[in-house]
Structure formats: C-alpha cells, structure tokens
Amino acid sequence: QNLLLTADHSVVKIADFGVARMSESEAPITRVGTNLYAPPEHSPLYSGTTGKLGIVELTPAADVYSMAKTAYVLITGESPRFFTNGAVTALPLQLRELAWADRLLEILHRATSDDPSARQQNALEFWDDLSELKRFAGETEKRPALAAQLEHAAPKAVYSKGYNPTAPIRPKFDTARELKLQRIPISKRPGTGISILENGQAESPTPAVYAPPATESANALETGESAADIVSPGRGPKLMRRLVVSAVLIAVFAAGLYATYNYVLTRVSLPTFSSLFGAREATALMNINLRLDPSTDNPRIGLVSKGSRLKVISSDGHWYQVEVIEYGTPKTNPDFADRGWISGKTRSGVETIALKGN
C-alpha cells in the first residue's frame, strides 16, 4: 500500500516512512514499521510493554531487510507472512523448480538475516546481487531458443508451453450454410413405399431428400407436387414456433394495454374534449354543493360559495363538472375539495351558475 507507481510506469515512490527518533544521547528509538516488513531491530513485536526499542543505532541494513521482503512480494506474488520478523527460508512451490530459484532464495535469505551485520550493508550491494540474478535468469530462459537455432539451418519458431502451433483445420464436411438442396420432384406409387423419380428410376423407400411434415407430404405426394416446394428442411417447425411466440407476445401486450386502459379509466380523471379545446368559465349565483358524481345521492365533498369563479370542465345534462378558480368567500372547511360536480339548476328550475362564452 505504500509503494506508488508513477503514471509512466517508470518510477516507484515510497510513501509513509516510519519515524526513527534519534537524539544526541543514547535514547531508544520509537516503534516503527509493520510486523511483515520491519526488521527485528525495530519491529513492533520487540518493543516490549513500554513501546520503546532497546536498540539505539539503525543502519541501512534495516532498509535492506524491508526491501528484501518487498522484493519477495514482487517476484513471487505472495505475502511474506510466513516469515514475519524472520529470514526468508523458502519460496512458493510454483517457483522452486526454476533454474534461478536457489540463487534468489540465497539473496533474500541473506538480506533478511536476524543479524544486521550479516545482510547486504546498503541498497547498492542488494541491487548488485539482484542484477547478477537477472543476468543468470535471462541466460537460462534463452537456452531453448538458442539450441533450436543451432540445430536447424533455418530459424524455427519457439512456442510457449501450453500453446499449439498448428492452425485449425477446415472441416471436410459441409456446414449448414453450404448445404444446397436439390429440388427433386418425386411421386409416390399408391400402395407401395417406393418413390419414383421423374426419369422412371425407383428410389429407396427412404429417399435422400428432406421430407415435409407427414400431414402435408402425403397429400402433396399423391398429387405429384415437389417435396421441396412444400417446405424447406427445418423451416416448418421453426416458422410455426416463431408464429406461436409472436402470438403469445402480442396477446400479453394487448392484455397489458387493456389493463392500463381500465386502470386509467377508473382511477384517473382525464380531461375531456371540452377541457382541452374551449373550456368555459362560470360564476356561482348562489351557494352550491359540490358533489363527487352528477347526482344528489352522493355526499357533499365541497361548497361553492356565491360569487365564486368556476372553470367548466365537462357537462352531463344540467350537471357541470367544475373546478373552483376563485372563491367568492373564504372556504369554511379546508378539507373541502376544489373540483367536482354541481347542479346548474335548483329543483324549482332556478339557474345556479352564469356561464360565460359560447
């Protein structure tokens, strides 16, 4: 987590250094590092109960230890958790059989020694050991290719393990797209299972042509029609299957539309034609009860006071569906609705509203 790679993949930067407090006197250093990568001389596990380490002097060999543990991760791809606060004594199984594995283990084991004086004393010594290992590994990996070039006069390609140099071979049989069916008119002699070609030669009871469905082929063969004219091989069942699926999808879509239509019709109050084109206004000539439907059998849902301005949405006989634009007097009940049906006439025939416009 503390190694940062630059965007051009060329420089690795180290972040979050541990803090080593050194004073003029021989005061102990602070506890720094993590258990996996910190050397024993300043590891948290060796700080005791006081949180301080007894070792005063730290040398570059401490950084070599941490660098070696980091190199172990980069080369093997595994965490050095088995070697916490100790030397690296083994490599993962998948690397042990490589030609350079023993040399790598020797370098890492020395760099992670418990004794700081036994390690490489600075980063340059550690780098020199790794450079030598790199040259050795490069030579061992090139040997198979060099041997192949010396054995043959012409250069020969070298394939990695697990890859087949042979190109895929084109199949000898015809694929479905390449099949070309011949339109061979056939007829069937009544009472026999032998098909007769047009040239008069007898064919086997099972001709080498694709037979149409039994219900259609029997009638067609009796009339002398071509089997290829009736149906293409495999097309009948596929076409029928597509038709069935299409019919099911159409039915489901129609059912969804019908359900949506019923829901909108019963739950949502849609604007009428008159509300979209030429909605009229009216003025209440008296206090009028506002009802849910055009009938006096329904309970009152509001009250339109005298002098209120109304917008007429639709009409049903002498009933009008209206929406209150402005009340003549303030609402007496805040729960009253502002939209509903009112009667345009009283029982005695007196007009209750005055319509404006056409």
Description:
The protein has 358 residues and is an alpha+beta fold. Helix content is 30%, strand content 14%. It has 7 helices and 11 strands. It has a 5-stranded antiparallel beta sheet. The chain has a two-stranded antiparallel ribbon with strand order 1-2. It has a two-stranded antiparallel sheet with strand order 3-4. Helix 2 (101-111) packs antiparallel against helix 3. The chain is elongated, with a radius of gyration of 48 Å. The model is unreliable at 20-27, 144-153, 194-200, 202-232 and 268-277 (pLDDT under 50).
Can you summarize this structure?
With 358 residues, the protein is α+β, with helices and mostly antiparallel strands. It is 30% helix and 14% strand.
Give me the secondary-structure category.
alpha+beta
Helix count? 7
Q: What is the beta-strand fraction? A: 5-15%
Oligomer: single chain
Instruction: Please give the radius of gyration in angstroms.
Output: 48 Å
Return the average pLDDT rounded to an integer.
74
Shape: elongated
